[in-house]
Design brief:
By secondary structure, the chain is an alpha/beta fold.
């Protein structure tokens, strides 16, 4: 990430069905329970519909608003209509987030950032770490292979150990002035 990125950013990558979201849920709950502020950027290849088409914010977007902020005492959402424009970059998304102790990015596996790969050989898909030098750790339900080239190999079924690795990684993360 660039020097202007919002503190520690860790990508969580892997094939669909590998368990990325389930692992993230467990990690975020534990980190938030320890008082850390955690942001998440979740990439989707699908259209995102946050409100039914007949609700006010959807009607205003459909009328032509570039962005609609939906605000309540419980949450705030900003919906931006791209209307054919290029999808904003990950850096642009990160710049819009509030400061946090950690930002986790699910998806964006093509981006340059430190990554934790979630890998399940039973899916029949190849591991990403051999071809991606940004993968710093792998959480897997398989034993560590001999060619793991120095990446941390974590037991996917032991989220406590993955959390321990993540806490160590955060302590070692280079701070940018």
């Amino acid at each position: 990430m660039s020097p202007t990125s919002p503190g520690p950013v860790l990508g969580v990558v892997g094939w669909s069905g590998s368990g990325k979201t389930s692992l993230l849920e467990q990690l975020i709950a534990r980190l938030a329970g320890q008082g850390l502020r955690v942001n998440v950027v979740k990439h989707s290849h699908h259209d995102v519909e946050l409100e039914p088409p007949r609700k006010d914010s959807a009607r205003l977007r459909m009328a032509g608003a570039a962005e609609v902020m939906l605000a309540s005492p419980y949450r705030v959402a900003i919906l931006r209509e791209l209307r054919g424009a290029d999808e904003p970059s990950l850096a642009e998304h990160l710049a819009r987030l509030a400061p946090a102790d950690l930002t986790l990015v699910e998806g964006y596996k093509w981006e340059r950032m430190p990554k934790l790969e979630v890998f399940r050989p039973a899916l029949g898909r190849p591991a990403l770490y051999p071809d991606d030098p940004d993968v710093v750790a792998v959480a897997s339900d398989a034993p560590c292979p001999p060619d793991a080239r120095g990446v941390a190999w974590l037991d996917l079924n032991d989220p406590g150990r993955v959390l321990e690795w993540l806490r160590d990684w955060l302590r070692e993360y280079p701070k940018v002035s």
